[in-house]
Design goal:
Elements (H helix, E strand, L loop, with lengths): L12 H33 L2 E5 L6 H8 L17 E7 L3 E7 L8 H11 L4 E6 L20 H25 L4 E7 L9 H7 L7 H13 L4 E7 L11 H18 L4
Parallel strand pairs: 1-3, 1-4, 4-5, 5-6
Antiparallel strand pairs: 2-3
Bound molecules: guanosine-5'-triphosphate and magnesium ion.
C-alpha cells in the first residue's frame, strides 16, 4: 500500500500527457525515418535497374553475366515466368540491383512493368535488343516449339520497344531526378562483323524505325531528364565471330558505363 495514498499531487495531467506525446512522436518519428534513410543510402550505392526487352532476346543471360552468376541449365528452353532479381556487387560497397522484367510470353509481365516503372520507379533502364536474333519462344501455356523469322523478330522488337518507351517516358516526366537508359544490343557474337552498323540502327538520330522511336522518347521525356546510350554486348564467349576476351570486354564496357551513369566512379 502506498504511504501517500492515491490523492498525492503529481505533475498536472495535461503537462505530462503533452510531454510524453512529444517524446513519443520524436522517437517514433526517428524510427520511421530510419528505414527511409537506409533505403536512400542503399539506392545510392545499389541503384535499381530495370532490364526490359522482348522474350528470348537475352535479358536473363545478360543480367546473370552482369551479376557474375552462372546461368540456369534450362535457360535455353524456357523463358522467365516472373520478375527476376540479380545483384552485382562491385568494389567499395557499390553495385546494382537488376530487376529483369519477363518477356511477352509471361503472364506476370504487366505486373512486373508496373512494379519497375510505376510502383517503385527504377534509377535506370537497360533495354535489350538482339538485331532480330531473339530466340523464338512459344506463348505461355502452349506446348511445342516456336518458329519465327528474323524479320518477324525484328518487328516484334520494335513493337516491344514502343510499349516500353511509353513506360519510360511517363516515368521520366513524373520523376524529379533524371533517368538513364542504355540500349544493350546483345548477341553481338552473331553479327560481330556488322556491329557498328547494327548499333547505329538502334541509335537516336539514325532514321531507322527503332531510332525514330528513341527520338520520340527523348522528345517526350525531355533531353535533360533522360540520357540514352547504345552499347553492344554478348553474354556468350568464344564464338566464330567473337573471342571470349572480346565478349568479356563488351560486358566490362557496359558495366563501366553503368557505374558512370550511377555516379559510382
Ligand atoms: N549467341 C548468343 N545467344 C544468347 C546470348 N544471350 C542469350 N542467348 C541465348 O538466347 C536465349 C534467350 O536468352 P534469355 O536470357 O533466356 O532471354 P530472355 O530475354 O530472358 O527471355 P524471356 O525470359 O523469355 O523474356 C537463350 O537460349 C540464350 O542462351 C548471346 O549474347 N549470344
Ligand atoms: Mg528471361
Amino acid at each position: 500500500m502506498s504511504p501517500s495514498g492515491p490523492s498525492r499531487p503529481v505533475l498536472p495531467k495535461p503537462g505530462l500527457a503533452a510531454l510524453s506525446a512529444t517524446v513519443a512522436t520524436g522517437v517514433l518519428g526517428a524510427l520511421a525515418a530510419a528505414p527511409e534513410r537506409v533505403n536512400r543510402a542503399l539506392r545510392r550505392r545499389y541503384p535499381t535497374v530495370a532490364v526490359t526487352g522482348m522474350t528470348g532476346v537475352g535479358k536473363t543471360q545478360l543480367a546473370d553475366r552482369l551479376a557474375r552468376r552462372s546461368p540456369a541449365a534450362d535457360a535455353a528452353e524456357v523463358g522467365s515466368a516472373v520478375l527476376e532479381r540479380r545483384t552485382r556487387r562491385s568494389r567499395r560497397l557499390h553495385g546494382f540491383r537488376f530487376l529483369v522484367v519477363p518477356g511477352d510470353n509471361a503472364a506476370t509481365r504487366l505486373g512486373a512493368l508496373d512494379e519497375v516503372f510505376h510502383d517503385e520507379p527504377v534509377d535506370g533502364v537497360i533495354h535489350v535488343v538482339a538485331n532480330g536474333y531473339a530466340t523464338p519462344r512459344r506463348a505461355g501455356g502452349t506446348t511445342g516449339s516456336a518458329t519465327a523469322s528474323r524479320a518477324d523478330q525484328l518487328a516484334a522488337e520494335l513493337e516491344d520497344w514502343t510499349i516500353t518507351a511509353h513506360r519510360i517516358a511517363s516515368m521520366a516526366v513524373r520523376r524529379p531526378k533524371p533517368v538513364w537508359l542504355v540500349i544493350a544490343v546483345t548477341k553481338a557474337d552473331l553479327f560481330a562483323e556488322d556491329l557498328d552498323e547494327v548499333v547505329r540502327s538502334y541509335s537516336p538520330g539514325s532514321g531507322s524505325p527503332f531510332g525514330d522511336k528513341v527520338d520520340e522518347l527523348r522528345a517526350l521525356a525531355g533531353g535533360a531528364r533522360l540520357s540514352v546510350d547504345v552499347l553492344p554486348v554478348s553474354s556468350v564467349g568464344d564464338s566464330a565471330q567473337l573471342t571470349t576476351k572480346q565478349a568479356n570486354a563488351l560486358v566490362d564496357r557496359l558495366a563501366t558505363r553503368l557505374a558512370q551513369l550511377s555516379g559510382h566512379v
